TrEMBL record:
Residues 26-100 form the S-adenosylmethionine-dependent methyltransferase Rv2258c-like winged HTH domain. Residues 174-286 form the Methyltransferase domain. SUPFAM superfamilies: S-adenosyl-L-methionine-dependent methyltransferases, Winged helix' DNA-binding domain. The lineage of its organism: Bacteria, Pseudomonadati, Planctomycetota, Planctomycetia, Pirellulales. CDD domains: AdoMet_MTases. It comes from the Bacteria. This is Transcriptional regulator. Pfam families: Methyltransf_31 (PF13847), WHD_Rv2258c (PF21320).
Amino acid sequence: MSTTLELQPEKMEAFAGRFLEAMNGAAMMLMSSIGHRTGLFDVMAEMPAASSLEIAEAAGLNERYVREWLNALVAAKVIEFDRLQQAYRLPPEHAALLTRDATPNNLASVAQWIAVLGYVETEIVDKFSHGGGVCYHEYHRFHDVMADESAQTTVSALLDHILPLADGLLERLEQGIDVLDIGCGSAQALILLAERFPRSRFFGYDLCADAIVAGRFRAEEKDLPNLTLKVRDASELIERDRFDLITAFDAIHDQAYPDKVLRNISNALRRDGLFLMQDIHASSYVEKNIDKPLGAFIYTISCMHCMSVSLSQGGMGLGAAWGEELAQEMLIAAGFAQVDVRRLEHDIINNYYLARLG
């Protein structure tokens, strides 16, 4: 005997409205990513209301494409349009959140993730049937976008907000200590630190050779003898009592074997050392993430990147939403005796863990 469910029309209508709104939101993200990559937002922020031709000429771009881009963002209420003057204007309040000058609040930079994830959708769909994961090298522009995000959330706040979370750390860096960054990427954070603290010695490890090559190129331009970058797997880290400070910025949950990496980090720290870990602000329990501002995005980027790249290495597939509860549990299991969790006002997506051995 079958039971026919009675549908609630008002609930259906509300969901349909949310879905259509999300479609327009996704379109706005793609157009915002293009606005960032082409520099159109930066150009318009410096212009009064102007025609599509004037904007295209100022940006050195094709007018027909610029006009369609403008119209899409007029419909999305990002750009204003004067019908009589046939002129487009980026409101200063919007420019304050969409230009390179807006760091660390440049939302257009973050919008790039939608296209990066969409690029591997077919590969991810295949994994739903066959398991396994998608490798780092299959993600088009991943390191470029990650560098943009790092510049916003990490590098811009490193000296004034992140490092001061640990009392006395800036003074120790001034005096000279040994520092390792796990998953350093193109080493933007380390380059800043090596310049600012010439008495300290900095080391960066990353699995991606291309990112390390890019970092070395930047470091050589700045002549930083106190910075060493290497292609290394953190799960094979064998140093013991070697570093005073180890950092990992949005890197641990992507690892194939994060439990092993955390254990290696605790072994590599000196007894009075500090492990500073930036990782996703989420709970380990889905019901606690429902009302988080970026809850759906965190699980999506996890499914389409973080979890998948770990699985591609035969790893645990921990995922971006491993959460505070599991993160603290794993840090304690790795040998850390004290773990403090901090937040920063400018960073709505990350927690900052201060882990010590004693």
